[in-house]
Amino acid sequence: MPQKQKPKSWTELKQAGNECFKTGQYGDATSLYSQAIRELEKSNKKNPEDLAILYSNRAASYLKDGNCSECVKDCDTSLQLFPFNVKSLLRRAAACEALERYRHAYIDYKTALQIDCNIAAAHDGTNRMTKALTEADGPSWREKLPPIPTVPLSVREKLAQQAAGGVPKANPAPQQNGIKKTDKPAPSDKDMKKAQALKEEGNSLVKKGEHKKAIEKYSQSLKLNPNEITTYTNRALCYLSVKQYRDAVRDCSEALRMDGGSVKALYRRAQAHKELKDLKACVDDLNLLLKVEPKNTAALKLLQEAQKKKK
């Protein structure tokens, strides 16, 4: 009598699924990951993180096969088991984008960038979603977004270490718009709250026209949290008001390092370039802006003025 074949362990099934995925056999990979999930759920050694990775892997297979709804479901499960897993966030974002759920995709891309601000796919996705949402909802599209979750410092540090695999990066930092990207230490939750309060004080001062005092508040805020794009663009507005144009360019460039599609940063940098008589740079920034928001009237007007001066 032939011996009954012992079922494969979940780790072997996962490995077999990985091999199928690498060779483009996505249907087979999905089936193997499903078996691995069942085996792991039956075992006594059920680890939420291992299970989350299996769901994320199956989500990747669904995504490759164009089954975006199932991909989103698996990413939801994966993220419940292992919150802020970057791969699951990026896979869900891509699936939501394909399903034209642009707000959800934008939130996931931005959440991934909190964990690692150098993820090119997340930057590109953010720029695409910014364009799509502007076309769909107009200039006030940000007001219709659900809140972006704040990734706790402990989670950011743990995931950054995992992503790096404990090995220092040998590759030079990528560049965007000619500015070198550098990793900044993530602020603590306490510092983030203080930074937000200072930023709000700065915003109040701007409303009163006290731009120099607002610059001080924004500068204090950025010392505590150097990763907040709007603080840079707000301070750039103040620098424009007090005619410190080079400082405005610097702040806008820093904001664009983090989000290459920031309309405010592109517009304010274009304004500063115009005042500095660098009309080519001004026109370049406005052309980039108009790719994101083709009907931005302020940008179209400034572009017309800059082109007249160039002639």
Features:
mainly alpha; 311 residues; single chain; Serine Threonine Protein Phosphatase 5, Tetratricopeptide repeat; 70% helix; 15 helices
Folded structure, characterized:
The protein has helices at residues 10-22, 26-42, 48-64, 68-81, 86-98, 102-115, 120-137, 153-164, 189-207, 211-224, 229-241, 245-258, 263-275, 279-292, 297-310, and strands spanning 175-176, 179-180. It is mainly alpha-helical. The chain has 2 domains: 10-163, Tetratricopeptide repeat domain (Serine Threonine Protein Phosphatase 5, Tetratricopeptide repeat, Alpha Horseshoe), CATH 1.25.40.10; 188-310, Tetratricopeptide repeat domain (Serine Threonine Protein Phosphatase 5, Tetratricopeptide repeat), CATH 1.25.40.10. Strands 1-2 form a two-stranded antiparallel ribbon. Strand 1 and strand 2 form a beta hairpin. Helix 3 (48-64) packs antiparallel against helix 4. The protein is elongated, with a radius of gyration of 23 Å. The relative contact order is 0.06.
Summarize this, please?
This protein is 70% helix and 1% strand. The protein contains 15 helices and 2 strands.
- What's the count of strands? 2
Assign a percent range to the helix content: over 70%
The backbone outline, from C-alpha atoms, is: elongated
Give start-end ranges of low-pLDDT stretches.
166-183
State the CATH topology of the largest domain. Serine Threonine Protein Phosphatase 5, Tetratricopeptide repeat
Strand order of the largest sheet: 1-2
**How many separate structural domains?**
2
| Class computed from helices, strands and strand pairing | mainly alpha
Q: Mind telling me the C-alpha Rg? A: 23 Å
Strand content: under 5%
Average pLDDT: 85
Q: What profile does the largest beta sheet have?
A: 2 strands, antiparallel
Order of helices and strands: HHHHHHHHEEHHHHHHH
